[in-house]
Amino acid sequence: MADTGRQHTDAPASPTTEDTPSEAGKPDLVPILELRSLTRVHGSGVATVNALREINLTVRAGELVAVMGPSGSGKSTLLTLAGGLDTATSGQVLVEGVDLGSLSRSALARVRRNRVGYVFQDYNLIPALTAAENVSLPRELDGASTRTARREALAALEEIGLPEVADRFPDEMSGGQQQRVAIARALVGDRRLVLADEPTGALDSETGESVLALLRSRCDAGAGGVMVTHEPRFAAWADRVVFLRDGMMVDEAAGNGPESLLSPGALR
Ligand SMILES: Nc1ncnc2c1ncn2[C@@H]1O[C@H](COP(=O)(O)OP(=O)(O)O)[C@@H](O)[C@H]1O
Ligand SMILES: [Mg+2]
Fold first, then answer.
1. Which helix (H) or strand (E) holds 192?
2. CA quadruple 90, 29, 186, 201: dihedral positive or negative?
3. In the predicted model, what is the mean pLDDT of residues 189-213?
4. Fewer CB atoms near the end CB (10 Å): N or C, the chain?
5. What is the bridge-based pairing of β-strands 90-95 and 31-42?
6. Least confidently predicted of 15-19, 52-56, 65-69, 137-141
7. Where do the H-state alpha helices sit in 49-130?
8. Whose CA is nearest to atom 27 of ligand 1?
9. Distance (Å) from CA 38 to ligand 1 centroid
10. Burial track 116-134 (b if 16+ CB lie within 10 A, e otherwise)
């Protein structure tokens, strides 16, 4: 599954791209997320806020895209629209080719549950559920048996390095532990789109790196990922970095290490 998108198609390949992975946005891979002229206006009259203006972005299988920009620039709005948690004023969001705006409420809820893993800035764990129950909940809502969902949840907690918190409630965990449990919840099951709003905000740098490694490996296995971050060293894990300002996409850079952000010509 992971490599299907990487195989060469029958279309004639140009000699320069034949033997090397394509650079600019991996154009040979399946789009997981497409934002088309995406616009979100809040309020009306003098209180109007243009949270996002005409954003175009494609994230393909295997790609992790970092979103950077000052506070209020529209980063969280972009993620909530991409995850079907908010509705665009105009423009389209396509997840694996499906226009979220065309779906009924129940169909949209199903896409959010099975196709999208969302890591909220403030974790959003359910206080009355243990870590394992929080992680298994979306799988149970998908129809997995309690036993299967628990097994998957324990495996996900193991993967994030926190098997010992399985039976703890959120208020019995540190902020960093809660954040990692929220990430386990987003990665459990076969989610093809992973959206993370400052997933490393509450973490020390070592734990932050391990969280990024998880997101990276999920994308390497065929998911598409979008992550909001303020930290260039975390953005360096991404294939591309897009920059927002006042709801507009102002720049895009290949994320080949932090240095690439500083080199002349990195920003177009
Ligand atoms: N529900 C809302 N009602 C009104 N304005 C909002 C709402 N949500 C966000 N905004 C405004 O939209 C802009 C973008 O917000 P946001 O996407 O949260 O930015 P960021 O995540 O980059 O800090 C800000 O000016 C914010 O105040
Ligand atoms: Mg935000």
1. none
2. negative
3. 86
4. C
5. antiparallel
6. 15-19
7. 75-82, 105-114
8. 72
9. 15
10. bbbbbbebebeeeebbbbb
